[in-house]
Amino acid sequence: MSTITDPRDRLIVALDVATVSEAESLVERIGDAATFYKIGYRLAYAGGLALVPRLAAAGLKVFLDLKLHDIGNTVEEGVRALVDLGPTFLTVHAYPQTMRAAVRGRGAGDLRILAVTVLTSYDEADAREAGYALPVSELVAQRSRQAAEAGIDGIVCSAVEAASVRSVIGPERLIVTPGIRPAGSALGDQKRVMTPGAARRAGIDHVVVGRPITGAADPAAVARAIVAEMA
Ligand SMILES: O=C(O)c1cc(=O)[nH]c(=O)n1[C@@H]1O[C@H](COP(=O)(O)O)[C@@H](O)[C@H]1O
C-alpha cells in the first residue's frame, strides 16, 4: 500500500477521449479536482503519448495504460522505450514471461509496472469463454502471486478482489482498481464493480474512473465527489 498524502492522488481519471485537444481541455476543466490521469489505447493511438511528458511537466501524474503483452524481448524493449516519457504507471498483462520482461525493461527508475489480472468487464462466463477453468477470484489470486514473484509493483483488478489480492501481494505493492461506479452511475460494459467508498474500505490504493467523469456535465464536481467519498 502506498502512502498517499494528497487524497486526490487516489483518483486516476481515464482520459478516454478521441483527440489530444479534447484530453487537454478536459484536464483544464477538471483543474485542481484531480492530480492523476490515465492515457489508454484510444488517446495513445491518436497522438496521446506526446501528452505524457506535457502532463508530467505540469506536475500531474500519468498512468500509461498500454496493457503490453508480447514475447519477452519485445515487451522488455517496449517498456525501455517508454521510460523516458516519464509516466508514473505502465500496464502489462499478468502473464509471467511478460511481467518478468517488463520488470527488466523498467530498470531501476521511478516507473511502476502494474499487471492487469482479469479485466473488470469479465464475469465467470466471460472467463470460461476465454478458456480459463479457474473461477475469476482464483485466477486473479494466481496472477497476483505470479506478479509478486516477478517483481511487479502493483496489481490491476476489481475492488471486489482487493482484500484477497492484498493478502497475496503483501502491504507494499499497489492495488489499482477500475470498474468503479459511484452509486447510481451507468455500468456500461463493467461487470465486477464497486463504489469508490467501498473500494477504499476494501484496501485499494487508487481507483480508475472514466465515463462517470468524462461524460458528466461537470467533470470536476464528479471528481471531487469521488475523492471525498474515499476520504
Ligand atoms: O487497465 C485498466 O485501466 C483497466 C483494466 C480493467 O480491468 N478494466 C478497466 O476498465 N480498465 C480501464 O479503466 C477505464 C475504466 O473506464 P470507465 O469504465 O469508463 O470508468 C478504461 O480506460 C479501461 O480501459
From TrEMBL:
Claim: Metal-binding is one of the keywords in the record: no
Q: Does the keyword Electron transport apply?
A: no
Q: What is its EC number?
A: 4.1.1.23
Which InterPro entries does this UniProt record tie to the protein? Aldolase_TIM, OMPdecase, OMPdecase_AS, OMPdecase_bac, OMPdeCOase_dom, RibuloseP-bd_barrel
Out of the domains of life, which is the source? Bacteria
Task: Give me the reactions it catalyses.
Answer: orotidine 5'-phosphate + H(+) = UMP + CO2
Instruction: Give one GO molecular function term.
Output: orotidine-5'-phosphate decarboxylase activity
Which residues act catalytically here?
A: K67 (proton donor)
Keywords from the named record: Decarboxylase, Lyase, Pyrimidine biosynthesis
The residues the record assigns to binding substrate are 16, 38, 65-74, 120, 181, 190, 210-211
Involved pathway(s): Pyrimidine metabolism; UMP biosynthesis via de novo pathway; UMP from orotate: step 2/2
Leader sequence range is none
List, for all copies, the residue spans of the domain called Orotidine 5'-phosphate decarboxylase.
10-226
User: What is the protein's quaternary organization?
Assistant: Homodimer.
What role does this protein play?
Answer: Catalyzes the decarboxylation of orotidine 5'-monophosphate (OMP) to uridine 5'-monophosphate (UMP).
By sequence similarity, the record places it as follows: Belongs to the OMP decarboxylase family. Type 1 subfamily.
Quote the NCBIfam families the UniProt record gives.
PRK00230.1, pyrF
Put simply, this protein is called Orotidine 5'-phosphate decarboxylase
- As recorded in Swiss-Prot or TrEMBL, the protein's gene is named pyrF
